[in-house]
Write a structure and sequence with these properties.
Elements (H helix, E strand, L loop, with lengths): L3 E4 L9 H16 L3 E4 L11 H14 L18 H6 L2 H11 L3 E4 L3 H13 L15 H9 L5 E4 L6 E4 L7 E4 L7 E3 L7 H11 L4 E5 L6 H11 L5 E5 L19 H6 L4 H10 L13 H7 L14 H15 L2 H12 L2 H11 L9 H9 L17 H16 L6 H14 L4 H13 L7 H23 L5 H14 L2
Parallel strand pairs: 1-2, 8-9
Antiparallel strand pairs: 3-4, 4-7, 5-6
Length: 496
Amino acid sequence: MKVRTRVAPSPTGDPHVGTAYMALFCLAFARQHGGQFILRIEDTDAARSTPESEQQILESLRWLGLDWDEGPDVEGPFGPYRQSERVAQGLYQKYSDQLVENGHAFKCYCTTDRLDEMRKAQTEKGEFAKYDGQCIHLSAADHAEHVKSETPFVVRMVIPTEGTCIVKDRLRDDIEIDWSQIDMQVLLKSDGNPTYHLAVVVDDHLMEITHIIRGEEWINSAPKHILLHQYLGWDMPELVHMPLLRNPDKSKLSKRKNPTSILFYQRMGFLPEAVLNYLGMLGWSMPDGEEKFSFPEMVEAFDIDRISLGAPVFDVDKLTWLNGRWLRESLNDDEFADRLVEWAYNRENLLKVIPLIRERVDVFTELAGKAAFLLEGMPELNETDLAIKNLEPEDVLKILQFALWKTEALRTWNRDMLNDLFMQLAQQMDRKVRDVLAPIFIAIAGSPVSPPLFDSMAILGPDMSRARLRHSINILGGVGKKKLKKLEKEFNALGR
């Protein structure tokens, strides 16, 4: 049996370090066994998926050196490797129909209102909220009437009402999950698109995936996937549920407390080897205990059964320390210079910056000061720097938080989109544009004097721009749970 592993990110936002973490272990396991590693794009969420996000995923994983054998950009014998293209081929509809015909799934005509009332009643009784099975009992005449009236429907899977499912996981003892805790999952939505649960099972089978290495948050979904394999007469791949990355306070890794975008670390000037090395340290260690190791060294020594199930902490300070070791120990002067030029002074970067500063300098020596904010990480700011005339400190914090939320929802990142976004924010907050832009300008540039704000943010990119907004918010004391809830209410009242 040839080992085949995969990683299947959704292109709905910035490329996440959690994706790189899973991809690293998938790739290491595949390479160790002479197998293949597949990249699959799960883009059936048409409302949130963007080509820009997909491209960022590809670029960030390649920057780390996580090269795949098959994928949307290299093709392969089991393509296409985008779920949207597989939907167009009718792949998922075919298996949904098969499940319905064999009595393993059924058409559900329940309205959203009925489902909401059902879940509300279950919750009030202290019951597990799940579908009550109403449509599974419909007669042939009832179905015919719905067909005649063209009632919208979804396809749900049949779930046993008694007993337990045994989830066999390579890293854990057998996990028993009561079927009573498993919902009758929607497999096919009313628009004909599959849900994750149908698509992932079909794709893993057709792409001959042998080992599913994924985060432990999917353990509770495993019974649905095991059952679908049984219904379709397929062998279940071996399951390996990795421990989730955590913030230093042991909470689930989130962008509120830690930069989570791969591109942020690229923009900050981390070496890809160091980032990959650090991700490899999380949940696993070299037999000799050495913390600094290359990917080939990891592959040679890798033993998936030695993965620790303790909560691995993603600590930026530890990553920074490790990156320093790589800079000092693994690069000679020539290599250091080459990497520096590649990071900061490559032609592509320079061509973005030059139009913003060439009219502001008379000699080249002035370039460093004019463009410094584009090359630094987090600006050195304090509360005094963020004291804005005509604004109370609470107002500054609110503007920065609203700006962050607005930019997090932005799917296309360019100067014009940013301009429109902040003009809209000023209007929605009923404030002068200059008052709204002032704290954002300081947060982004670290100074009241710099090239134009929107052009600068376009060059910095979404990852660094959002990180600087979060940095300034933290300087002002951050947003606690109580304050966050209040701000969220105000923000939602603005409209989108």
